[in-house]
């Protein structure tokens, strides 16, 4: 019997996909996750100094690279899709008589099973390094790189749990909260802790947009253009005249971050991203009619959280191997002072991707669990295949 080829697999995935599934939504989620992964790989470097490792950013030494943060800081798109899928899923569950606890358990289960795996592995790894005499500062830097991205999963879980309420909320309300908080803490010298209100309110803005999208709102390209142009103009004004940082990610060593906690600038930038995402829906739908393109998106969506949770571990593992081989490897553990580091880091990206593939193959089962099985016709007989990503 002929061994199935990649083309055969792509055709099988395409055939197993329900005809009413909006493939462009899955593509936006995949692009958002991959954007975050590539962004972290490009703006984070582990540098050996005085016997310890610490994280530094090339953006600190090369401000001209700030546009990298505009391209790869794609969290707003992830929350936009999350709001759309979450609100649609809840409405469907209610229509089928599924209660809120069961619906929420199913939504959060897939989110936190892979988190439990990464926490277990890194608890053992950190303990082993400390017992082996690895400096505490090094262990702290490594664990921070792994654990710090988890904040957004906690926020996403809270917003998911609040979906029945958020689905009724207009996005202008959380946007007004962000504006008020920034005015008080930055304009009038209010307490810094006020900024943490924006952790929920800031990401609630794109999540609310997604919920409105699920109800049939945001239809037409006019809305997309309005969000893109309006968000871009507002962000430009905030950076130019209100002195918000131009970087949309945190830069170690800088005093103020747009992301930690979310600022008004990162929220308006997110609105522009959401507008661009809505404008991409049509082109994406046309491209994803091709089985090969859709198969790639489906594979990423089946393991989106696994990819997100293990991408920093992959980068650190490759860097650690470089250190064991003698260290001072361009693009890995050397300080990111100039363009030569950027070019070297670009050359390392495929290696990071290969290591991430190893992590994906090892830990993807924690995310997928009991996958939904879809009917596929093979050789004239209906069979069952786990090939379609869940919403």
Could you explain the architecture of this structure?
With 391 residues, the chain is mostly helical. It is built from 16 helices and four strands. The chain has one domain. The longest helix is centred in the first third of the chain and has 32 residues, at 100-131. Mean pLDDT is 87; it is low at 371-387.
Helix percentage range: 55-70%
Low-confidence stretches: 371-387
Strand arrangement, major sheet: 1-2
Radius of gyration: 22 Å
- SS elements, strand count: 4
Given the C-alpha coordinates, what overall shape results? globular
Supply the number of helical segments: 16
Whole-number count of domains? 1
- Ends apart, CA distance between termini: 34 Å
How would you sum up the major sheet?
A: 2 strands, antiparallel
- Average pLDDT across residues? 87
Please provide the ordered H/E string of secondary-structure elements. Answer: HHEEHHHHHHHHHHHHHHEE
Estimated structural class:
mainly alpha
List the helices and strands and how they pair.
Blueprint: H1 6-16, H2 23-43, E1 45-49, E2 52-56, H3 58-61, H4 67-72, H5 75-95, H6 100-131, H7 136-147, H8 151-161, H9 163-166, H10 172-187, H11 197-214, H12 221-241, H13 264-287, H14 291-302, H15 304-324, H16 339-368, E3 374-378, E4 381-385
Antiparallel strand pairs: 1-2, 3-4
Helix pairs in contact: 1-14, 2-5, 2-13, 2-14, 2-15, 5-11, 5-13, 6-7, 6-8, 6-15, 6-16, 8-11, 10-11, 11-13, 12-13, 15-16
């Amino acid at each position: 019997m002929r061994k199935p080829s990649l083309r055969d697999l792509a055709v099988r995935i395409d055939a197993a996909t329900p005809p009413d599934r909006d493939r462009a939504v899955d593509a936006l989620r995949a692009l958002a996750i991959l954007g975050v992964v590539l962004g972290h790989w490009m703006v984070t470097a582990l540098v050996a100094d005085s016997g310890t490792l610490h994280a530094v950013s090339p953006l600190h030494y090369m401000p001209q690279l700030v546009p990298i943060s505009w391209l790869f800081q794609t969290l707003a798109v992830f929350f936009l899709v999350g709001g759309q899928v979450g609100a649609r899923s809840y409405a469907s569950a209610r229509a089928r008589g599924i209660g809120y606890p069961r619906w929420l358990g199913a939504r959060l289960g897939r989110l936190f099973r892979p988190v439990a795996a990464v926490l277990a592995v890194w608890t053992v790894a950190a303990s082993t390094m400390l017992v082996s005499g690895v400096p505490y500062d090094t262990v702290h830097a490594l664990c921070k790189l792994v654990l710090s991205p988890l904040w957004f999963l906690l926020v996403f879980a809270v917003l998911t749990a609040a979906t029945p309420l958020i689905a009724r909320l207009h996005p202008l309300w959380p946007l007004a909260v962000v504006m008020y908080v920034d005015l008080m803490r930055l304009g009038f010298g209010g307490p810094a802790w006020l900024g943490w209100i924006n952790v929920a309110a800031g990401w609630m803005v794109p999540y609310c947009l997604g919920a409105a999208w699920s109800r049939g709102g945001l239809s037409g390209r006019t809305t997309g253009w309005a969000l893109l142009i309006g968000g871009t103009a507002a962000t430009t004004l905030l950076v130019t005249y209100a002195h918000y940082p131009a970087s949309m990610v945190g830069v170690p060593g800088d005093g103020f971050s747009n992301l930690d906690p979310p600022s008004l600038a990162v929220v308006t930038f997110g609105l522009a991203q959401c507008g661009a995402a809505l404008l991409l829906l049509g082109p994406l739908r046309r491209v994803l009619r091709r089985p090969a393109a859709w198969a790639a998106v489906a594979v990423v969506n089946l393991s989106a959280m696994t990819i997100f949770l293990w991408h920093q571990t992959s980068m650190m593992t490759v860097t650690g191997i470089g250190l064991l081989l003698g260290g001072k490897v361009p693009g890995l553990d050397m300080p990111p002072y100039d363009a030569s580091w950027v070019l070297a880091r670009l050359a390392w990206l495929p290696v990071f991707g290969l290591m991430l593939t190893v992590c994906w193959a090892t830990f993807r089962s924690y995310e997928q669990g009991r996958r939904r099985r879809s009917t596929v016709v093979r050789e004239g007989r209906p069979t069952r295949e786990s090939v379609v990503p869940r919403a």
